[in-house]
Input
Amino acid sequence: MAFCALFTRLLSASRPQKNGDSALAGIAHTIIFWATPEDALRLGAASAAANCLAGSPGATRLGHIRRLQNEIRLETIETGPEHFRYDSFLRSSWSAQEGVMKKSIGDNMIPRGWSFEQGLELVKKAGYDGIELWLGEVPWFQMNTTDTQVTELRRKVENAGLVVSNVSTGLHWKTPLSARDPDLRAQAIRIVERELETAQLLGCDAILVVTGLVTQEVPYNEVYQRCLDAMQQLTPVAAKARVKIGCENCNSEQRFLLTPREFWTFLNEVDSPFVGIHLDVGNIHDTGFAEQWIEMHGPRITRIHLKDVMKKRGRCCDTVYTSLFIGDNDWPAIRAALTKVRYDGWLIAEMEARYRYAQDQQFYDTAADMDRLISAKL
Output
């Protein structure tokens, strides 16, 4: 009953912007594919609000819909229509102006010894919009974390005033999709499947996958074919979950898909709108230029990892990666490329060089750097 009344209120509030049709289309889509009132409301409202952002009829952007979906809270359903603040939601939606990117940071950056809740409080205070959850790299999010526990993680994130930007994992470095051992490959597939499952539970629409590792024992051609087979096997799973697999460019570390053209060809062969590239602008370092990758892959970019890089190895102690703006990346060129391809998705800080002291300060400093990048004040 509460849902029906709320649905009516939504359409009524949408009519002045002529968005009732967009809301109905979004709700009809969920009835066909998901069939839950919560999903129907979330996508219907997101479709209507995204239509407000479109410059002309039929120009609604999928990125806006997906982002706005994540901003709708389920408590609006539970409290009933008399408490549904459509006007405040609409103001929030309109604040997502064209080209405005959002900031996130990984929970694997939370200082050692801190609780998840302490980390979330810091992330929010530092000015981020969301948090990236790393499966298998933090004690609160492991392969054996139950669905109930994952749902509780989402509750904690939303209570902190954040959303989950995406799910990532580093488990494929030890258990690659390209392994010769079929048992290892099966484990690697299961890791991706669990990422997709948890992404659904967490309310996000993208995951990160390290596709394959070329080694002296396992040559490039083998890795390519096994990774292609794995992505084609996983594509129907991702489509059913409505979650995109972002294959990360790890370039030198993977020794795989080293150029933007190679990556483009790989994605063409996978041939699915649910498989794209999770672009890391630091990982490219000595194999090309980040701005060229952005321009070539544009709409296929699912998320962007931000870090800087010292391209001449040996200039840093134990990693070539460093904080934004003090390495060798051409940030004005990167920002110009983001504008050129009209990227308005998530930017996610991945700072491998950690502060030795005052570790919480790195969150504030990095958020400020990201704000400068977003505002193009470079």
